[in-house]
Write a structure and sequence with these properties.
Elements: H1 2-14, E1 21-25, H2 31-39, E2 44-47, H3 50-59, E3 67-70, H4 79-85, E4 88-92, H5 95-110, E5 119-125, E6 135-136, H6 137-147, E7 154-160, H7 168-188, E8 197-200, H8 206-212, E9 216-219, H9 221-224
Parallel strand pairs: 1-2, 1-9, 2-3, 3-4, 4-5, 5-6, 5-7, 7-8
Helix pairs in contact: 4-5, 7-8
Length: 226
């Protein structure tokens, strides 16, 4: 099985521009398969369940250059542990959560539990979707002044998950809208110049995300499915 999975990985990598970061979504994936991908040069792995991720991190602790990404909906009562365990948090979906993460980042740095602040993306919804978390564009603009006050998180860009059932054209237009919002925020110079990341695109729509300007794509089933 690993040979076919590796072959699929190589084909996908061949069509991903060099400036786009491939994040392998390893939820429910075995340690052996993660190690297999690691041997192929993959260093970015994403999880959406905290306990599963922590168990994997313990088992893979010898692979010290893995970069762990948290991509699931995050409850505020788990924010402390996520800050201490992940380099990237893609799914910061509310001002309350961002403030809680900032608080725990301050403490973790002071206590020496982490050496640098987590890098985060703000999850935004450019289309109405009751099944997804995140800011509406309007609400995000309203909260920017409060987000700007956070001193410890590294706010690096936007993240988006699109509604199901969109046509290919609708998908591309939605991703382009996310890019437009990000550029508008950049132009306002609300955050540092490092606000330049767009985490968007999954197994079913990543080509459109890349076309629209994604800098990180989160691929799971297309990589790991049997």
């Amino acid at each position: 099985m690993n040979d076919s999975v590796i072959e699929r990985l190589k084909k996908i990598q061949a069509n991903i521009p060099a400036n786009v970061r491939l994040v392998a979504v390893s939820k429910k994936v075995s340690i052996d398969l993660i190690q297999c991908f690691y041997q192929q040069g993959i260093r970015d792995f994403a999880e959406n369940k905290l306990q599963e991720a922590l168990d994997k991190q313990i088992q893979l602790k010898d692979l010290t250059d893995i970069c762990w990404h948290f991509i699931g909906h995050l409850q505020t009562n788990k924010a402390k542990k996520v800050v201490e365990s992940f380099a990237w948090i893609h799914s910061v979906d509310s001002l309350k959560l961002a403030q809680r993460l900032d608080f725990h980042t301050k403490n973790a740095l002071a206590e020496g539990k982490i050496r640098q602040s987590p890098q985060v993306c703000l999850q935004v919804k450019v289309l109405v979707d009751d099944n997804k978390y995140g800011w509406s564009v309007e609400q995000l603009w309203q909260d920017l002044s409060e987000l700007q006050k956070l001193n410890y998180l590294q706010i690096r860009g936007l993240m988006a998950i699109l509604p199901l059932g969109l046509s290919s054209q609708e998908t591309l237009m939605a991703f382009k809208k996310v890019t437009e919002v990000a550029h508008s925020i950049q132009n306002k110079q609300v955050f540092s110049p490092d606000f330049n990341q767009l985490s968007m695109g999954m197994s079913g729509d990543y080509p459109s995300a890349i076309q629209a300007g994604a800098t990180m794509i989160r691929l799971g089933s297309i990589l790991f499915a049997d």
